[in-house]
Amino acid sequence: MPDTPEITAILAAWRDGEPDALDRLLPLIYDELHRLASRQRRGEREGHTLNTTALLHEAYIRLAGSEVAWVDRTHFYAVAARTMRRVLVDHARAHGRTKRDGGARVDLNDIQIPALGRDPDLLDLDEALQQLSALDERKARVVELHYFGGLTYDEIAGVLELSAATVHRELRAGRAWLGNALGADAE
User: Fold this and answer.
1) Taking a C-beta distance cutoff of 8 angstroms, is the pair 18, 70 a contact?
2) Global pTM exceeds 0.85
3) CA 82, CA 154: separation in Å to the nearest integer?
4) Which of 71, 91, 98, 169 is deepest in the core (most CB within 10 A)?
5) Residues whose CB falls within 8 Å of the CB of residue 94, separated by 6 or more in sequence, listed in order
6) In the prediction, which pLDDT does 114 show?
7) Which residues contact 14 (CB under 8 A, 6 or more apart)?
């Protein structure tokens, strides 16, 4: 992710209500947001009506209308990743998809959840992440930031104010929990 003081300064200006800050920010973050949107869309079915650019634009509209107290660019990308995930889940729900009925599939190879014989549906994964969040919000955030946001251990550590070692432990535990939650549902 681009790590420029300029992005952090513009985010601070946006947070402080400077009217043209968002217009100055977009050219600096567009490519990275497009990469995040592409990562989020990986595993979607062919012919999905929400392409990468549409996902990016919908997430950007939601971000532009938000009242987040931006800390820095890592915080921004973390919120952007979560927003994109929400857009995809909302889109799946709005189009009446039910679990295991041709809905969006999520390639969990990157998540490395053991013993899953299938890729879970996006709605299954979202439900499992919500359940994990109810039990242990930190583990759910670590999983989300790493796999959906593409943040490194050090970046997650900065966002969540943890050590990189704690991030690693939480990620391993979160993956194991998701594997159990999604694997029990696989039959």
Assistant:
1) no
2) no
3) 18
4) 91
5) none
6) 42
7) 21, 22, 25, 70
Per-residue CA distances from 14 to 3, 18, 120, 158, 178 (Å):
17, 5, 37, 21, 36
pLDDT of residue 184: 54
Distance CA 56, CA 51 (A): 9
Provide the terminal-to-terminal Cα distance of the chain, rounded to the nearest Å: 39
List the one residue out of 125, 142, 131 whose CA is nearest residue 44. Answer: 125
Cβ(111)–Cβ(122) under 8 Å? Answer: no
Nearest to 78 by CA among 24, 1, 21, 180: 1
For the chain of 187 residues, list the mean pLDDT of each consecutive stretch of 10: 77 90 91 85 64 88 88 86 87 66 46 48 84 94 84 87 95 90 62
Identify residue 103 by its one-letter amino acid code.
G
Residue 88: phi and psi, rounded to 5, are -65, -45
78 vs 38, 110, 141, 142, 151, CA distance in Å? 15, 18, 9, 10, 8
Is 103 in contact with 122 (CB distance < 8 Å)?
yes
Distance CA 134, CA 174 (A): 12
